[in-house]
Amino acid sequence: MAVGRERQPGDAGSPLAERLNYLFANVHPRGAPYTNGHVAEEISRNTGEYGGVTLTEQYLSMLRNGKRANPSGDVLRALAKFFAVPVGYLMGDLSASQTARVEEEVRFLVAMRDQRVRAIALRSVGLPPEVQDSLTTIISQFRQQMNLPSEAPGAGGEERP
C-alpha cells in the first residue's frame, strides 16, 4: 500500500491535512493542543492499541501540511482512534452531512471543556422541558444583545442521548 505522495505545485491543499489540522486544533485536553510529537509518540508507544502502527513526528507533519496525502489505512485508523472520530472522516468517505455531524460533535466537546458551559448544561438536567425551553430563549436573547449568532457554533438543537 502506498505510504504517501509528494504534494504537487498547484495542489489546493489536502482534505486530509485540513481534517487533521481541524482535529489538532479542537480535540485536545484542556490547556494546549497536541503536538505532532506527542501524537506520534502516543501511537507508536501503544502499538497494541493502535494496530501496530509506528508514526514519526516528521511524517505526521507532512500529513498535516499536505506534503503527504495518501497514508496507509492503518495510519488513518490509528489517527482516527487517537482523535476518537470515525476513520471515514479522515479517509473522506463520509457524506457532507456525516462530516458536518462529526465536526459538530467535536465543537460540542470543545464547548464542554469550558467549566461554565458544563455548569449551565448540568444545572438544566432534570428541569421540565418548558423550563429548559425558557432558558434557551433567555440565552438566545443574551446572544442577540451581544451581537452573537442566534445559535452557538455546533448547537444543532438536537437532543443528545
- Compute the separation of the termini in Å: 39 Å
Total number of helices: 8
Main β-sheet description: none
Structural classification: mainly alpha
Counted beta strands: 0
Amount of beta strand: under 5%
What value does the average pLDDT take?
A: 85
In terms of per-residue confidence, which ranges show pLDDT below 50 for 5 or more consecutive residues?
1-12, 157-161
Oligomer: single chain
Helicity level: 55-70%
Inertia-based shape: elongated
The succession of helices and strands, N to C, reads HHHHHHHH
Radius of gyration: 19 Å
Brief descriptors of the model:
161 residues; disordered N terminus; 0% strand; 8 helices; single chain
What's this, in brief?
By secondary structure, the protein is mostly helical. Helices cover 57% and strands 0% of the residues. The chain has 8 helices and no strands.
Present the secondary structure layout.
Elements: H1 15-26, H2 36-45, H3 57-65, H4 73-83, H5 87-91, H6 96-112, H7 115-124, H8 129-145
Helix pairs in contact: 2-3
